[in-house]
Amino acid sequence: STPPLKKKKQPTISEIKQTPQQSREDDCKLLGKQRRVVKVLGEGGFGQVLKCCNLETGTMEAVKVMKSRTGVIEKAKHEIQILKQLRRLDPNTRHVVRFNSFFFNMEDICLSFEFLDVDLHAYICETRLYETGLPLPEVRPITEQLVMALHQLKTIGIIHVDIKPGNVMIVDRHEKPPRVKLVDFGGAQMSGNVDFETCICTQMYSAPEVLLRSEMNEALDMWSLGVTAFELAVGTPMFPYRSWTIKTDVFNCFDDVAGMLSRITPVEALQHLFFTHNVLHEVQMEDNATNCCWPVLQRWLILPGLKHFN
């Protein structure tokens, strides 16, 4: 039986180190009062993401541990406010990660989420599809679920800002078609009240207005979704990361500035034939989505002003 929790010594976050195999001692390390650390899932400037077992419910959770520093604490407060807003959405149709609660471990702020399987970037790498892209029967439902997520976010005025394969989690990699959820709302913003200090983005997936730090709204997420969908279909990034030329690469793809700012809405996207019509028959059951998806993405997910990519 499990010893009383009060007799356990709680380790600091710095004592929890990532190792190839977790030792038996790690099984006894607690986070807060009721979570046992299983392993480290990732690390960043904010702190760590840990896989934990909730000793009260017996379920696995992903816990984001944010360091006790002034700048990080402010970011944590901002993220918690956004996450509380997400609870207003219908859990059956929102396609965003479920936020459980937040708690403290010593002075660190911990955010608890449902545990999901693998992110899309890792999934593509693991299945060795980074040269051909995912099969169309996977690209279409994944993209549709993400469009639905953006529609839900728009109803409560939230902009994600950092949509990319690494921030989309597959619920269960063995389930077909795959179910996905949008994660990491650390840099998300409220529409009409964008704070550049808490705005977190990844340049190669960012819309022109984000790169220019100009007026931003929910439309910027549709750009990032389009770039992400392209990567799923083709297997490689639309704009490979080269920090000194990324803005030039993006802007050179357009015939006119107006084209960069004219985007389809999530509702309009969901009514597109790509989702409502059986595209599979048109492409004769191709093994991957590269040939058939790119014209579709060019027409509606990215922008009407986009030049043709070879």
Concise summary:
This protein is α+β, with helices and mostly antiparallel strands. The chain is built from eleven helices and eleven strands. It folds into two domains: 85 residues, Phosphorylase Kinase, domain 1; 184 residues, Transferase(Phosphotransferase), domain 1 (Orthogonal Bundle).
Task: Describe the fold and architecture.
The protein is globular, with a radius of gyration of 21 Å. Helix 3 packs antiparallel against helix 5 and helix 5 packs antiparallel against helix 11. The protein folds into 2 domains: 85 residues, Phosphorylase Kinase, domain 1; 184 residues, Transferase(Phosphotransferase) domain 1 (Transferase(Phosphotransferase), domain 1, Orthogonal Bundle). The chain is an alpha+beta fold and 310 residues long. The protein contains 11 helices and 11 strands.
